[in-house]
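Category: protein sequence paired with discrete backbone structure
Discipline: computational structural biology
Format: plain text, a pair of labelled lines
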Amino acid sequence: MNTVEVFREHRKTIVAQWIEAVFGTYPLDTTGFLRTKEDPFCNPVGEITTTVAGHLYDAVAGEHILEERVREALERFVKLRSVQDFPPSRGLGVVYVLKPLLRATLLPLFEAEGRTADYLEAESRLDTLALMAFDMYIASREVLAEQRIAEIRNQHAQLVRWARTVEGSPVGGPGGSKL
């Protein structure tokens, strides 16, 4: 059995375990909702997590899937995690949760056949995907920071405009001085 076939055989179990691990990072009252609601509009977190789990696993397995598909799924997942209240280590650490799952299930099979190098190649693909996710996470957080700065500037400008309308204002309202 080649590497991809071994991964395919265990896909359902490992993907389900990874999804559970990701859901486990959320508060307990949210986790039940994530597991039970199937509608992507009611539960976008569950839908995005489930989608990325399959794509991530297939990419690690060496399946011939379009890089763009993996990138899009991973980017949606990373953007979701970047806007949530997680420190970066928890936001992206879930990508690496796949590694111990693979080691527990697949590494012994590859070692028994003397094909550890094939397994390590799959782990290397996971590391590459994690680095891609890190780049996406940083880009997403930069966009968020820029949006927050723009929002603060707009609020400041509104306050200055309002202050100018107030009698006796130090920023140049009617009867006030102009700064």
Remarks:
- DSSP finds nine helices and no strands in the chain.
- The chain has one domain: 3-140.
- The chain has a mean pLDDT of 85.
